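1st attempt posting a full record on here, be nice pls
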Amino acid sequence: MSDAESDEDPGRELDQLDLVAAALAAGASAEQAGALVGRSDRTVRRWRLETDLERRIALHRRELLGRVSGGLSQAAGEAVAVLAESLTVDDGEGTQLRIALAVLDRALKYHAASELDARVAELEARLADFEDPEEES
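the predicted structure (as tokens):
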């Protein structure tokens, strides 16, 4: 397929940008992401420079991190139950306890990373408002 975007509907390109952003955020290469929308890796690299693709990628990554954090939070609840049970049950090797402690450790680290990510996103938004005062009018 040709990379001549000028003949296409701008709304379609926005949809393509979002699909490419989601793929890149999930770890796809520029070639793989471009193939999803019938574009070359060269077009994807150009979009990264000329569009808001980087912002979209960051949004998708935050969403993915949120899902991971949610899953870890759920597992953390189960880990707390294992910890409580391990106070009365000894499996002789402490396997359950080590796993529970590892899950809790990861959950706390992801929570801290998510909090930091949210704070950075808020600061970036404030900076963008400060740098582009014309957009407020």
